[in-house]
Design goal:
alpha+beta; Zincin-like; three-stranded mixed sheet; 7 helices; 8 strands; disordered N terminus
């Protein structure tokens, strides 16, 4: 997908540029060129848009400043769990991380369920909001958070085929050190259907 994005952007810019070139014949003093045309439409004098400046998008802030984060759910407080696990298993080495409930969707997933994710670039851990439920044991939610925290400290590997592996032998070894590891894996197997529709 990343390899197609620049091409799509260039194609859109080309089409928009061609359309604007045609408009210049009909709208005097139209000031639009290149990438700026994708973000700001500015007209001077008499034009089809009238005498005003219209912004099509706003300046984007970093992800963590744009989104509202919530660590407190109805049943669990993720920050409290994160701090406890950070002290107990990581000697408070994970600094600057944000943990939040993910976005609630209209429908539960059909085929597979992602309990949590981590974005290392933003130091962001997201936990699926369906885990904020009265039937979910605290030790299972701790296991999910611990699993995501491990990704921050255990480096990924590239295998002999050039594929990236985030769940390495070292990762699995460290994961088994969680105090309820086997209990949590068993609970996951027995209750996965409750999270799927």
């Amino acid at each position: 997908m990343l390899t197609r994005q620049p091409l799509a952007f260039a194609w859109l810019e080309y089409l928009l540029g061609a359309a604007l070139k045609g408009l210049e014949n009909f709208v005097p003093n139209l000031s639009l060129s290149g990438c700026d045309a994708l973000f700001t439409l500015y007209t001077k004098g008499t034009s089809l848009m009238g005498k005003r400046k219209r912004k099509l998008s706003v300046k984007r802030l970093p992800v963590q400043r744009r989104l509202q984060f919530s660590t407190e759910g109805e049943y669990f407080d993720l920050k409290t769990l994160f701090d406890k696990l950070n002290a107990e298993y990581f000697r408070n080495a994970l600094r600057g991380y944000t943990i939040t409930w993910g976005r609630r969707r209209k429908h539960p997933p059909k085929e597979y369920f992602v309990f949590g994710t981590i974005q290392e670039e933003d130091k962001m851990i997201r936990i699926h909001p369906l885990l904020d439920a009265p039937f979910v044991p605290t030790w299972f939610l701790e296991y999910v958070v611990y699993h995501e925290m491990l990704h921050a400290v255990v480096p990924e590997e590239i295998d002999e085929y050039g594929r990236r592996r985030v769940h390495t032998r070292e990762f699995y070894r460290r994961e088994r050190q969680f105090h309820c590891y086997y209990r949590a894996r068993r609970w996951e197997d027995e209750n996965l259907d409750r999270f799927l529709r």
